[in-house]
Each structure stands twice: as structure tokens, then as C-alpha cells.
């Protein structure tokens, strides 16, 4: 019995069930290509889980006075397609048809600007900690759906932020279980 409800993807690129928080930090994909899945991690403030701060960052309304760390990041125009919270809650900020601003300076197999052709999924966590079983269940469900809808994404094209921005990024980190990719190919 699956503990994660079946996911659906509508024609506009939105998942259900998921909490939708449309971010202004996105634009059109230059070629419409979707061929890479990038796994990230985030917590705001760093190392603290829960609360509204990740939503606020991706929506462009993070209050710099709420935490000293926010003073240095509140003006960023960043987003991800999805966030998977510690309890497995799925939040979507950008439809997959659009380009989310998650990868920054990046390169995969000699191609720069990975935002142009990738989907970015954030896991609530730190690059030095572990992730929850609920997060892996949800990440597996989302990844299987994306593999089915976007055949150019293969298990070999599921990477970490650290893989496309080495030396600049370390997420999803040492605690991330990359064996989840092998389990994607098992029968659900």
C-alpha cells in the first residue's frame, strides 16, 4: 500500500495533489526542452525546518528583519519547480512548462544554463543532514511521473545541484541516498 497519493500532471504543468504557490521568478523556456532533473536542498533559516520562509523566498516577499540571515538573501529572485517538505508535503511554485530559476551558473554534459532545460526539486533539509522517508517517497512519486511525461529525462539525467555547479554548490549533500534513482526502475 502506497502512503503517497497518486500524482497527476495537468496540461499546464501543475501537479496534483500539491499546494500551489505560483512564483513570479520564472519565465519561458527558450526551446521548450525538458531533459534534466536537478535535486537541491534548502532550509530557512539554515538548519531550521518548517515555517513560511522558503515560500516567501520563492515568492519574493522574504522579510529581511525576521532573521539576520535573511538580510543577505531577501532580494534574490530564485525559485524551484517544487519543494518537498520534511513530512512529504509537496509544494509547487513553477509549472514544469516554464523555466524556474534554481540552478544559477551551471553546466551539464558541456551545456551551460541548466535552468533552460531542467526541472528543479528542492528537499527541505541541509547538505550535511539526512532526509526523511516521507521525502523519498514523494521524490520517488514525482520523479516517476516526470520520467513518464518527459522521456528525455532518464535516471542518468537525475543529478544533484553539486553535479551541475561543482565547487559552488554542495547540495543535496552527503546525506542524500542516491540509491533512490535505482529504485525508480522497480515496479511501484
UniProtKB/TrEMBL annotation:
Keywords: Cell wall biogenesis/degradation, Cytoplasm, Hydrolase, Metal-binding, Zinc. The keyword DNA-binding does not apply. The keyword NAD does not apply. It catalyses: Hydrolyzes the link between N-acetylmuramoyl residues and L-amino acid residues in certain cell-wall glycopeptides. Residues 23-173 form the N-acetylmuramoyl-L-alanine amidase domain. Its main location: cytoplasm. This is 1,6-anhydro-N-acetylmuramyl-L-alanine amidase AmpD. It comes from Oceanisphaera sediminis. The gene is ampD.
Amino acid at each position: 500500500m502506497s502512503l503517497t497519493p497518486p500524482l497527476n500532471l495537468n496540461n499546464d504543468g501543475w501537479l496534483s495533489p500539491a499546494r500551489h504557490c505560483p512564483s513570479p521568478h520564472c519565465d519561458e523556456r527558450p526551446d521548450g526542452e525538458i531533459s534534466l532533473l536537478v535535486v537541491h536542498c534548502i532550509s530557512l533559516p539554515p538548519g531550521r525546518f518548517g515555517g513560511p520562509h522558503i515560500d516567501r523566498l520563492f515568492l519574493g516577499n522574504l522579510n529581511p528583519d525576521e532573521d539576520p540571515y535573511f538580510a543577505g538573501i531577501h532580494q534574490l529572485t530564485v525559485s524551484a519547480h517544487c519543494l518537498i517538505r520534511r513530512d512529504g508535503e509537496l509544494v509547487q511554485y513553477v509549472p514544469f512548462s516554464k523555466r524556474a530559476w534554481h540552478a544559477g551558473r551551471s553546466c551539464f554534459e558541456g551545456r551551460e544554463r541548466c535552468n533552460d532545460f531542467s526541472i528543479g526539486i528542492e528537499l527541505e533539509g541541509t547538505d550535511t543532514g539526512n532526509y526523511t522517508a516521507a521525502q523519498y517517497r514523494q521524490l520517488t512519486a514525482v520523479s516517476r511521473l516526470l520520467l513518464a511525461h518527459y522521456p528525455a529525462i532518464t535516471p542518468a539525467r537525475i543529478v544533484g545541484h553539486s553535479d551541475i555547479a561543482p565547487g559552488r554548490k554542495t547540495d543535496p549533500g552527503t546525506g542524500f541516498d542516491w540509491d533512490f534513482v535505482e529504485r525508480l526502475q522497480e515496479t511501484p
